[in-house]
Amino acid sequence: MQWVIKTTKLCNLRCKYCYEWEHLSDPTRMSEGVWRDALVAIRDYAELANQRCGYDQPVDIIWHGGEPTLLPRSYFESVFALQREIFPSTAAVDRDC
């Protein structure tokens, strides 16, 4: 089960095909409260879907933007702490972009 979360519009790549061209300098990012609400909703949905379907699919959370890696390290640490709290047995990061 994959979830794509748009964390920020901030980006330094300027790809010609980008649909967010006018907003790439916007430093706004998801707040910790919005992350918490999103992760709880994802967890609850996944638990319900897995119960009703009779299987146990893992949850993959994909960071999208903009360019999420422009966010400060402290932001990642904070969100990963939330993820470990809400999904205690499934904390992994795939860096193969």
TrEMBL record:
Segments forming domain Radical SAM core: 6-84
The record's section on CDD domains has: Radical_SAM
Q: What is this protein called?
A: Radical SAM core domain-containing protein
PANTHER family assigned to the protein according to its UniProt record, in alphabetical order: ANAEROBIC SULFATASE-MATURATING ENZYME HOMOLOG ASLB-RELATED
An example Gene Ontology molecular-function term: iron-sulfur cluster binding
- Identify the InterPro entries for this entry: Aldolase_TIM (IPR013785), rSAM (IPR007197), rSAM_sf (IPR058240), Sulphatase_maturase_rSAM (IPR023867)
Q: Which UniProt keywords apply?
A: Iron, Iron-sulfur, Metal-binding, S-adenosyl-L-methionine
Native organism is Mycobacterium riyadhense
Superkingdom of origin: Bacteria
Protein family: Belongs to the radical SAM superfamily. Anaerobic sulfatase-maturating enzyme family.
